[in-house]
Amino acid sequence: MDTRLTAEQDGIRRTLRELLRERCGPGDVRAAVDGPAGYDPLLWSALAGRLGLPGLALPEAYGGVGCSVTELALACEETGRFLLPSPLLATCVLTAPLVLALGTEAQRAGLLPRIAAGTLTAALAVAGPALTTALGLTCENSGYSAGGGRAGGVQARRAAGEWRLYGEAAQVLDGHSAQVLLVAAHTGGFARSRTLLFLVPGDAAGVVRARQTALDATRPCGRVQLRDVRAKVLGTEDADVPAALAAAGDAAAAVLAAEAVGAADRVLALTVEYAGQRVQFGRPIGSFQAVKHRLADVYVGVQAARSAAYYAAWAAGRGEGAGGLALAQALEALRCAAAEGIQLHGGIGFTWEHDAHLYFKRAAGDELLFGPAHRLRDRAAEAAGLFTGGEVAV
């Protein structure tokens, strides 16, 4: 692995950082999350038109840029730095790869060019608590059932030669605003349990959606209710959905890790800046050895997480799974950076209105949605066969 960035990769990162510095300050973030969609549509259009961000990792044949997971991870490191509220995660990181992997040619041609142009948003409708299970991040997903047992979740049945969906999925990222829903539904009966993915227009008859209150408002979530809704299978009915979800999950974990690294790096920079300005006992608090040690520990954690995230993104492009471990390390680095930021900002850091709390909420929210770190590591150890019967495998 060559750790040096190419000129193209550095250009993507630099250009995106400059645009977000102008258009995505803390005040802009707070204003965007209060909007109906939970993000700024004008900024999203600018990111699509000027930078091609939605299509960065999509093939050129479908209107994308044709880059790899590495470039998408570098871009998301910058969006994480500014806590950009956008459809990027739900549409381009979670949904588009599944359409590309499983969709028919007609489905790809109908959806991916519009996603790449930024004119179509999508969401993966999996119940929030089951998202990491479906993506294979916290346990093997071969036994995953979108139905959630005999009650709950989403069920699919055939009626008059077409598929009908009924049920509910809560905590769906961008579920309240996405124009297309990719719904994981249980079908085949309980004796032959299986999960398929279905395409449903967001405004289809029988779809009822509402935005939910979330700890991290920069990741808006919605509750999706399906009341006998017509749906079309993504791809074919014999598709290997668990394998596709696991592959998408590993790449998504690498991207999420890079995003968390960007957020951790930014909150660390804010804390270092404040420590150099706040005077106590006649000198800046950043000159005290104890404060230096705490900031140094955060810095080491951020740099280690960045290395892990970059490697995971590179490995994802080669089909080698390392996303879960990188995400665990990045989540811990972000949590530590946010906590130290609040502590070292003193009394002002404990007010919800302070910018440090935007990063604290992102750290806590990501732990709830994609973690916790110890379960991510446990799954990685299980997948690697490190432990069998309670003893180390040799």
Automatic annotation (TrEMBL):
<keyword id="KW-0560">Oxidoreductase</keyword>
<dbReference type="InterPro" id="IPR037069">
    <property type="entry name" value="AcylCoA_DH/ox_N_sf"/>
</dbReference>
<dbReference type="InterPro" id="IPR009100">
    <property type="entry name" value="AcylCoA_DH/oxidase_NM_dom_sf"/>
</dbReference>
<keyword id="KW-0274">FAD</keyword>
<feature type="domain" description="Acyl-CoA dehydrogenase/oxidase N-terminal">
    <location>
        <begin position="6"/>
        <end position="118"/>
    </location>
</feature>
<protein>
    <submittedName>
        <fullName>Acyl-CoA dehydrogenase family protein</fullName>
    </submittedName>
</protein>
<dbReference type="Pfam" id="PF00441">
    <property type="entry name" value="Acyl-CoA_dh_1"/>
</dbReference>
<dbReference type="InterPro" id="IPR009075">
    <property type="entry name" value="AcylCo_DH/oxidase_C"/>
</dbReference>
<dbReference type="InterPro" id="IPR013786">
    <property type="entry name" value="AcylCoA_DH/ox_N"/>
</dbReference>
<comment type="similarity">
    <text>Belongs to the acyl-CoA dehydrogenase family.</text>
</comment>
<dbReference type="InterPro" id="IPR046373">
    <property type="entry name" value="Acyl-CoA_Oxase/DH_mid-dom_sf"/>
</dbReference>
<keyword id="KW-0285">Flavoprotein</keyword>
<dbReference type="InterPro" id="IPR036250">
    <property type="entry name" value="AcylCo_DH-like_C"/>
</dbReference>
<dbReference type="Pfam" id="PF02771">
    <property type="entry name" value="Acyl-CoA_dh_N"/>
</dbReference>
<feature type="domain" description="Acyl-CoA dehydrogenase/oxidase C-terminal">
    <location>
        <begin position="254"/>
        <end position="383"/>
    </location>
</feature>
